[in-house]
Design a protein that fits this description.
Layout: H1 5-13, H2 42-47, E1 53-56, E2 60-62, E3 65-67, E4 72-75, E5 80-82, E6 90-92, E7 98-100, E8 103-105, E9 117-121, E10 127-129, E11 132-134, E12 138-143, E13 149-151, E14 154-156, E15 170-173, E16 179-181, E17 184-186, E18 190-195, E19 201-203, E20 206-217, E21 223-225, E22 228-239, E23 245-247, E24 250-252, E25 260-265, E26 268-273, E27 276-278, E28 282-287, E29 290-295, E30 298-300, E31 304-309, E32 316-318, E33 321-323, E34 327-332, E35 339-341, E36 344-345, E37 363-364, H3 368-375, H4 386-397, E38 407-408, H5 427-453
Parallel strand pairs: 1-4, 2-5, 3-6, 4-7, 5-8, 6-9, 7-10, 8-11, 9-12, 10-13, 11-14, 12-15, 13-16, 14-17, 15-18, 16-19, 17-20, 18-20, 19-21, 20-22, 21-23, 22-24, 22-25, 23-26, 24-27, 25-28, 26-29, 27-30, 28-31, 29-32, 30-33, 31-34, 32-35, 33-36
Antiparallel strand pairs: 37-38
Length: 454
């Protein structure tokens, strides 16, 4: 296997496939349903004047609904819109439509190739609020729906289908100035998918049990705050985009093959600040990026905290807390110009003799074995085995094998407070992180004592 073939295999799982798998092309637009599939609510919509509010009493309304004028539909006591099973349940084709307070059932039918959705919007300034969407291939699909909002919706995909047989929870294509606020997505292919969709705000959403929590292409100037992406097969992948800001999000428990808490590929000018990136196969993955800044994050309990290709340029890690990761850095290639400054590393067992809060000796992030892991995927099989331990001991005793050296010159001696970083929700998980931190501290102290005795 060639020098970087190992991580190229990993990259092939997401970034390097950035062609067919990672792009989506919208289908031809669904029009007004035929009479046999039309919703029982359609006569009220057809009779309404533009701008009216229609209050829908509780009950079940079978069939698909077509809205072609600006209206506000408000469900009282959660009426159920049960689709025909042939296509999208609600089709919004006029600007300025609001849909609020409905349960929507797609009956598990429709055509994935035609973007069959619980709510399909192809118009501007729509508001989809407090709706619960189940059994639909896509939850809410926005197509050139500039200025639209999806808020406080609960979307659950079709149970039992493989990811390739269903769509995303919230899907935006060629849409600008969107807002996704406080939604919950479960069991979809991708929780949130963005393509050619910029200048949006994604805040307070929660996504779990899907392939990608966040899947993202060619979308610039978006703001992500206070979201939770957890338990994904692949984690979160952001590609070919610029000027993205992540604050106070949680990327946690993404443990599938080659899963990454936060993957950035061909992305420039990204700021990740005060996020929790924990319990992932790989915490952070960087390839082909420029000017990415990680500041004040907790990156913890992952097999590798950072995976970086040498094509990642001008990266800065400042004031982060790296706790309990098996490896601090897997580097693919022979150079890295990243700057590490003011970070805490739980694996760095060095004292703070002058009391300035920083250790007296630099921390080396790379080792021979981690260099092998970065360039040879199969080396992961030996990470906990005798071979890995023996190589580590041999490297310490006989430092004749020298990998490319990446160091932080004066790391923090103690973990920073980082009060803005969210903590994982469950008490058990918090206890695990606390126990992990304590274990790491004990191990670090033990190693320091042994080193001093030697």
């Amino acid at each position: 296997m060639t020098a970087i073939a190992g991580l190229l295999l990993i990259a092939a799982a997401f970034g390097a496939q950035a062609g067919a798998e990672h792009t989506s092309t919208p289908a031809s637009l669904e029009g007004r349903p035929p009479a046999r599939q039309i919703s029982a609510l359609q006569p009220a919509v057809d009779a309404a004047r533009p701008g009216e509010t229609i209050e829908v009493p509780p009950g079940t309304y079978d069939g698909d609904l077509f809205i072609d004028k600006p209206l506000r539909l408000v469900g009282r006591n959660r009426p159920l819109l049960r689709g025909s099973g042939a296509g999208s349940v609600v089709r919004v084709r006029a600007d300025g439509v609001t849909l609020e307070g409905f349960d929507i059932d797609g009956r598990g039918g429709g055509d994935l190739g035609r973007d069959a959705s619980g709510v399909h919007v192809a118009a501007r300034d729509a508001v989809i609020r407090d709706c619960r969407v189940t059994n639909a291939l896509f939850g809410v699909y926005l197509l050139e729906a500039h200025g639209s909002t999806v808020e406080a919706c609960r979307i659950r995909g079709i149970p039992g289908k493989d990811p390739g047989e269903k769509g995303s929870g919230i899907h935006a294509y060629n849409t600008e100035r969107f807002r996704f606020i406080a939604n919950e997505v479960v069991d979809a292919r991708d929780a949130i998918y963005l393509q050619n969709s910029s200048k949006g705000v994604i805040r307070g959403n929660r996504a779990r049990d899907m392939r990608y929590g966040l899947h993202y292409m060619f979308s610039d100037d978006n703001l992500f705050e206070d979201n939770v992406f957890e338990n994904g097969d692949a984690g979160s992948a952001i590609m070919f985009s610029e000027r993205i800001v992540f604050r106070r999000n949680q990327f946690i428990s993404n443990r599938g093959f080659a899963s990454v808490g936060l993957l950035l590929q061909q992305c420039d000018d990204v700021l990740a600040e005060s996020n929790l990136i924990a319990d992932n196969a790989r915490g952070v993955f960087l390839e082909g990026t420029q000017r990415v800044v990680f500041r004040g994050n907790i990156i913890a309990q992952s097999d590798a905290a950072i995976v970086a290709f040498d094509s990642a340029r001008a990266t800065r890690f400042e004031g982060n807390s790296f706790v309990g990761n098996m490896s601090p850095l897997l580097l693919a290639g022979r150079r890295l110009d990243a700057v590490f400054r003011g970070n805490y590393w739980s694996g760095h067992a060095e004292p703070d003799l002058d009391g300035d809060g920083r250790t007296e000796r630099p921390y080396r992030l790379t080792s021979v074995f981690d260099h092998m892991r970065g360039n040879l995927t199969a080396a992961d099989l030996y990470v906990d085995g005798f071979a890995g331990i023996a190589l580590s001991l041999a490297e310490t005793a006989f430092p004749v094998l020298e990998p490319f050296r990446v160091t932080e010159e004066a790391p923090l001696a103690r973990p920073p407070a980082l009060p803005d970083v969210p903590r994982a929700g469950g008490a058990e998980r918090r206890q695990n992180y606390a126990g992990l931190g304590a274990s790491a501290l004990v191990l670090a102290l033990g190693a320091w004592v042994l080193r001093g005795a030697a």
